Amino acid sequence: LSIKKSDFHIPMNNKNHHTEEISTERLIVRRGQPFTVTVNFTAPIHNYLQQMKRTFLIAQTGRHPSEADEIQTEFPISSLGDQKQWSAALEKQDLCFWTLTVNTPANAPIGHYTLFLRASQSSYFLGKFILLFNPWCQADGVFLPNEAQRQEYILNQDGVIYWGTENAVIAQPWDFSQFEEDIVDICFTLLCLGEYHQGDKDLTQRKSPVHVCRAVAAMLNCNKLTRILTECEAEQHHNGTPPSKWLGSSPILRQWIASKYQPVRYGQCWVFAAVMCSVLRCLGIPTRVVTGFTWAHNTNSSLSVDEYYNEDGTLLTQDKSARVWTFHVWNECWMARADLLPEYSGWQALDATCQEKSKGSPSFCGPAPVHAIKEGDTDIDYDVCYFFAAINAKCQVWIQKAGDTPQPAFGGTKYTGNNISTKSVGSEYCKDVTHNYKYPEGSLKEKEVLDKAYRNIQKLETTTNSTTQFSSIPIVLEDPVNLFIQLQSRCSLQLGQDIPLSIEMFNHSGGEKATHLVVGIQSLHYNGVPITQLWKEEFHFNLQSNEVSNLEVLVPYSTYGKELRENHLLRLTAMLRDEDSGYIYFAQEEISISDPLLTIQLPENMVQYQPSTAKISLLNPLTEPLEQCVIAVAGRGLIYRQRKYRLGSVQAKSTKELQVPFTPIQAGPRRLTAHFTCHQLQNLKSYQTTDIAAA
After folding, report:
1. Does residue 483 contact residue 585 with C-beta atoms inside 8 Å?
2. Is 294 exposed, middle or buried (0-12, 13-18, 19+ CB in 10 A)?
3. Residue 349 in contact with residue 422, Cβ under 8 Å?
4. Which burial class, exposed, middle or buried, applies to 620 when counting CB atoms under 10 A from its CB (0-12, 13-18, 19+)?
5. How far apart are CA 86 and CA 96, in angstroms?
6. Contact assessment for residue 645 and residue 630, using Cβ atoms and an 8 Å cutoff
7. Using one digit for the tens of pLDDT, what is the confidence trace for 674-693?
8. 596 by DSSP, 3-state: which?
9. What is the mean pLDDT of residues 494-501?
């Protein structure tokens, strides 16, 4: 007996398993769902009836297959298949052909498999296939019951990541590209290395989505030997790509593989989360990217973070321990938590950005059940306490006088964990998911949860030698004066605009107060690291009892325009000192300066394979020309590879248009992305999604 060839029916099987976009040449299937194989023998089967009485299939994965660790599985070919375990059913037979239906269990380890047929004492190679998680299979731990969500969190390759401030959320396009053919192999290489460096050499662990998430997260940024990305410290962009210039995950993953696992320069939290989303979606785990605004990082599970300012209202540079970030980006993965109670299944928070869990030991966090974070169940695996502290900590402002003890500022408490956002299912709208993470600020339920979190952590400390602790919330001082910064628009300002500020002071102390006011603007990195003070003015007021005083200030663009950095963030501060008591009152606001308007116009009705044209327009709002202007245009299924157009200069207060001809080769929803750079600006992106009609 010998086999002439085997047919894995790749187009049909891959389509049934939602993997046809990954490959039309390799069999890629999802666990818990049958696939079809046809075996073509060299001679009529009835010549070998005795030999064919007991025939088996063998599925192998891993370097050293053995039955003991389930890496090699042998199962008989019968007339009935068992869908709950490895099985093969004979569906159809002809003179020289067998057509088999092969079933994989819904908890099989994911990976690269080899399939053999064994008859008598001989084994025959049939072919290779890749096995992924299956959100369409009810018995799989990653089962997601909603089809629209499966389309979004597994199959959608066009993402949106949110930056900015809680009052001015900015959408940034990202190409997850999880189904480009070589990406699946890179993902498994990454998984192998993650397991190796965590000491997990048992490949049967790959049946667990929790295990896979932790192995992948360990590889993003925290493993100094083979991490995928190097974190960008402040403005250190030498010999690398600034984080804001990346447009998608595939160039990062390919560069990492091509360099033999050298870390790619550079990434920050949104890049780590975006690449993680690509890898986990490719492996079959429903994943989304989430942004939280005003995030307390490296708190070591304390519910208190301190910020120190000098007497000019300038934020002082602190060590890297605890700091309030303007925004932070992490992931959520959907899975059943077989290791926990049923209520903890569902969305799990997973953060690839390193946190100091213990002294000198940076690590990723999660997966932590989002339900446990909301309920304050801080003793639940993994790392619920870190997520809970990051979005529930209160930030106290201290004023550091030269050579003196820091003094707490009235009104200087800031609340974290605001406007937690992710892309909506099936649309490009921003969805607020804060209610999944915490109860309304000031509600009775919030107080109950905070009290429970304190009790849980105290209990943990009495049973272990854990260094993790929740410190007490700062004492809220009574404010004899209220101080506010009012902006005409709490949303972002356009580049080139002056900043109109209104400082409001209300003295309700019952007596007149002589005061000294310092108003300032500082440029800021997204992770709370101050860059430089750009502007400051001082004023003296006599505040009358029970009266409101207003100060209107216009800060010219010329004072801050040259010093805007990657995320265009500014912190506005107002510090009022009572000359008699020495009390200090403090207010702050963060604003994001919006880039110039870059718009993409596409024809209304476009058809596959029919030539079309996109119109890209750039408005220069500045009083100076934009020099050395380049637009890079990309779009999967619309444009083959990225195209670059050199525009030269765009004159002051003028608009420049670019016509981009293209021919769509793929039908369905497609996105065109434009990335504009010039001497003055490096991170101006725009995107437009359209539906291409099938030819």
Report:
1. yes
2. buried
3. no
4. buried
5. 25
6. yes
7. 999 998 888 899 999 999 99
8. coil
9. 92
Question: CB–CB of 412/396 below 8 Å?
Answer: yes
Q: Parallel, antiparallel, or unpaired for β 27-30 and 122-132?
A: parallel
Tell me the CA distances in angstroms from 605 to 602, 612, 659, 663, one per residue in order: 9, 10, 17, 13
Buried b (16+ CB within 10 A) or exposed e, 330-344: bbbbbbbbeebeeeb
For residue 178 the two structure tokens come to 């999880």
SS3 504: strand
User: Which CATH class name applies to 147-463?
Assistant: alpha beta
Q: How far apart are the first and last CA of the chain?
A: 47
For residue 146, pLDDT over 50 is answered with yes
Q: Does domain 3-132 have CATH number 2.60.40.10?
A: yes
* Backbone torsion region of residue 349, taken as left when φ is above 0, otherwise alpha when ψ lies between -120 and 50, otherwise beta: beta
pLDDT the model gives residue 304? 83
Q: In this structure, what token pair is assigned to residue 321?
A: 């321990």
Domains of the chain by residue range = 3-132, 147-463, 483-592, 598-692
Residues 6+ apart with CB under 8 A from 689: 158, 428, 669, 670, 671, 672
Give yes or no on whether 3-132 and 598-692 have one common fold. yes
* DSSP line for 361-403: EEEEEEEEEHHHHHHT-TTSTTTHHHHHHHHH-EEEEEE--TT
The amino acid present at 425, given as its one-letter code, is V
Give the list of residues 6+ apart from residue 687 with CB closer than 8 angstroms, or none: 158, 173, 600, 671, 672, 673, 674
**Encoded tokens for 24:** 């039309």
Note the residue count of the chain.
695
What does 434-450 look like in DSSP terms, one character per residue?
A: HHHH-PPTT-HHHHHHH
In terms of CATH, what superfamily is 483-592?
A: Immunoglobulins (2.60.40.10)
Q: What is the pLDDT of residue 607?
A: 97
| Peptide bond preceding 34 in cis form (omega within 30 of 0) | no
Order the strands of the 513-524 sheet from edge to edge.
493-494, 584-594, 569-578, 513-524, 530-543
CATH topology of domain 598-692: Immunoglobulin-like (2.60.40)
The catalytic residues are: 269, 328, 351
Q: Which of 70, 67, 133 is nearest to 286 (CA)?
A: 133
Helices and strands (H, E) in the chain, number of each type: 10, 39
Tell me the C-alpha distance between 497 and 337, whole Å.
Answer: 50
Report the b/e string of 408-445 with b at 16+ CB within 10 A. Answer: bbbbbbbebbbbbbbbebeeeebeebbebbbbeeeeee
- pLDDT tens per residue, range 538-566: 999 999 999 999 999 999 999 998 888 88
